[in-house]
Design brief:
This protein is an alpha/beta fold. Among the domains are: 4-95, Gyrase A, domain 2; 174-253, no CATH class; 445-575, Orthogonal Bundle (Isoleucyl-tRNA Synthetase, Domain 1), CATH 1.10.730.10. Helices cover 48% and strands 13% of the residues. Strands 7-6-5-11-12 form a five-stranded parallel beta sheet, sandwiched between helices. Strands 1-2-4-3 form a four-stranded antiparallel beta sheet. Helix 5 (140-158) links the parallel strand 5 (124-128) and strand 6. Helix 4 (97-110) crosses helix 17, helix 6 packs across helix 8 (228-253) and helix 17 packs antiparallel against helix 19 (517-539). The protein is globular, with a radius of gyration of 29 Å. It starts with a helix and ends in an 8-residue tail after the last helix.
């Protein structure tokens, strides 16, 4: 494993411990307060740290003295070329070129494992995402959470965690009853050959006609005369199963394969709710009461009469939450609590939920219940994905409404492809709203970030193809004289090499901060640097990638290009998009 930030941090920690030992720094100091960052401007170092600024609050030394003491310790390190003290208390670190090349060599040798780590130590994380009601195909609003959850899972796996991708199937409750009746209406239309008006709250999508045709072809008009209770049971079960097949196909088309589909019906059947109820009751966290009507949100669990309430305010929630209705039916929240209790019993070290923005009001109550049910041992992290506004030529875009009142994921994939959809669903931070313009995302111009990034990979691939024609016997695995090749690396190339070496830190940061969009920002920056160097070679022959008269000069350039491609391929794999080596 090679990681400039992590390796330097470990070295700095040794210095810090000596400071504590010699009473230079007070022993109650939290080392994690010191930041170590890759410099955006490499004229100000390769790595910068705010150590002096932080130390000033935990030492009796003045700024000049602590700065000089740190400088003297750092400059002695074998891999450091120079140290600069800047600003209010920042230290800029410049590494020796030999060290940077040795790290590049490690990256090259690691191949696909460059950026991987064992940070997770096989700890297990349950990541629940999409979990749309099985009442119709997935629509474009689901795509953002779908891609976010899948890529976040990929990144966590890259750093050693065991991930379970999970879809919670809400196959119980009123909406499933309505779904079954909506399907029966479509079935009845086939038999009577008459159009039946769809009720306001029913599902109007034509996908139900396709499902109804399946039933009619296998059973004829059998269900018209059947016992009503058995008929209702059959139609809601059949509808749920068929739509779940559609959802799984939608996910596969988007490049997502779930490990688990957990049924709400099964959670209810196995009576997890009883265990939850008993625990809350034994800890005196339930009471009878009447809540005021929620302001601004539609909370289906609320009712204007006495019901059993959970003391979620005790754990940071705004109000207590309905748990058992006055008619002795469990609330939606109670069933969700049972599902999360099921997760806890499966032994995950962390739970992550990816929700749409319409679920913001449920965050505190779910965090509260998980705290109670896990005895405060398991962390529940909830990430909200904001709305996506679909456009074409910068105007609101509406496709066919074959599916009812929404645009399906498959309609969008057919327009732009799954790679474009996945890429742009991550192009903005998940908690900000975004526009998705169907025309702009497939333009082959440098203003289109996915084209710009893929073009960098394709260009670098063309260099490697052309180099084989001239240097077809070069074995990069057996290059030993790197010290002699360093002189052929230009100042701008060092910037690219340092950017390549920051990849492990990017992966780890994206996982721990749960911000997969930063991978795209990193790829944009790396692509910009590569394209800029390519353009420099047009005006300055000495900067061109292939020099047939100087094999050593060419080899070192090809070496970092191959290493850069390792990073590109690794990033593409995490994003779930295909690399394109010819454009």
């Amino acid at each position: 494993m090679t990681d400039l930030i992590k390796d330097f941090r470990k070295t700095f920690l040794k210095i810090h411990k000596n400071f504590e030992k010699n009473n230079i720094v007070k022993k109650n100091f939290d080392f994690n307060k010191i930041s170590f960052d890759i410099s955006k401007d490499y004229n100000r170092g390769h790595i910068s740290t705010n150590a002096i600024f932080i130390y000033l609050n935990f030492t009796d030394l003045n700024k000049d003295k602590i700065s000089k003491t740190l400088y003297n310790e750092l400059i002695k390190l074998k891999n450091i070329d120079r140290v600069e003290i800047a600003g209010a208390g920042f230290i800029n670190i410049f590494f020796k070129k030999k060290y940077l090349i040795s790290e590049l060599k490690k990256a090259y040798q690691l191949k696909d494992n460059f950026g991987s780590s064992k940070l997770g130590a096989n700890k297990s994380i349950n990541i629940e995402f999409i979990s749309a009601n099985p009442t119709g195909p997935l629509h474009v609003a689901h795509s953002r959470g779908a891609v976010f959850g899948d890529v976040l899972s990929n990144i966590y796996e890259k750093i050693g965690y065991k991930i379970v991708r999970e879809y919670y199937v809400n196959d119980s409750g009123k909406q499933i009853e309505i779904l079954g009746e909506s399907l029966f209406i479509r079935y009845k239309e086939l038999i009577t050959k008459k159009k039946i008006e769809i009720k306001k709250d029913f599902y109007p999508g034509e996908y139900l006609i396709t499902i109804a045709n399946k039933i009619f072809s296998q059973d004829g008009n059998k269900w018209i005369f059947f016992d009503i209770n058995k008929r209702k049971l059959f139609f809601k079960k059949y509808a749920t199963n068929e739509i779940l097949k559609i959802i799984k196909k939608d996910c596969k088309n988007l490049g997502i394969i779930f490990d688990n589909f957990v049924s709400e019906k099964e959670i209810i059947k196995k009576k997890y709710i009883d265990s939850v109820f008993n625990k809350l009751k034994s800890e005196y966290l339930l009471y009878e009461g009447i809540l005021e009507k929620p302001m601004g949100i539609d909370d289906s669990d609320w009712e204007p009469r006495k019901q059993l309430l959970f003391k979620s305010t005790k754990f940071g929630d705004d109000v207590d939450r309905p748990f058992l209705k006055s008619d002795n039916n469990w609330t939606y929240f109670a069933n969700d609590a049972a599902y999360h209790y099921n997760k806890i019993k499966r032994g995950f070290s962390k739970l992550i939920n990816i929700w749409g923005s319409d679920h913001i009001g449920y965050i505190k109550r779910m965090k509260s219940i998980v705290k109670v049910l896990s005895n405060n041992k398991i962390d529940l992290k909830i990430n909200i994905c904001q709305l996506v506004h679909l456009k074409k030529d910068n105007k609101p875009f509406k496709m066919s409404k074959r599916s009812g009142n929404f645009i399906t994921i498959n309609e969008v994939i057919n327009e732009v492809g799954s790679d474009c959809l996945r890429f742009f669903m991550l192009y903005r931070k998940n908690d900000t709203q975004m526009d998705f313009d169907l025309k702009k995302v497939i333009e082959r111009t440098n203003d289109n970030p996915i084209f710009y990034i893929q073009y960098a990979f394709a260009r670098s691939s063309s260099i490697l193809r052309n180099s084989k024609i001239i240097f077809n016997k070069t074995n990069f695995d057996k290059i030993n004289n790197f010290d002699n090749l360093i002189r052929f690396i230009s100042a701008y190339e060092w910037k690219i090499i340092i950017k390549i070496l920051t990849w492990p830190n990017i992966v780890e940061t994206c996982a721990l901060k749960e911000e997969p969009h930063k991978i795209i920002y990193y790829l944009e920056e790396l692509s910009t640097m590569f394209h800029s160097f390519w353009n420099k070679g047009k005006d300055d022959k000495s900067l061109r990638f292939i020099d047939s008269s100087n094999i050593d000069k060419t080899i070192i350039k090809l070496y970092w290009i191959i290493s850069m491609q390792i990073v590109f391929k690794s990033a593409f794999k995490l994003l779930g998009i295909k690399p394109i080596d010819k454009m």
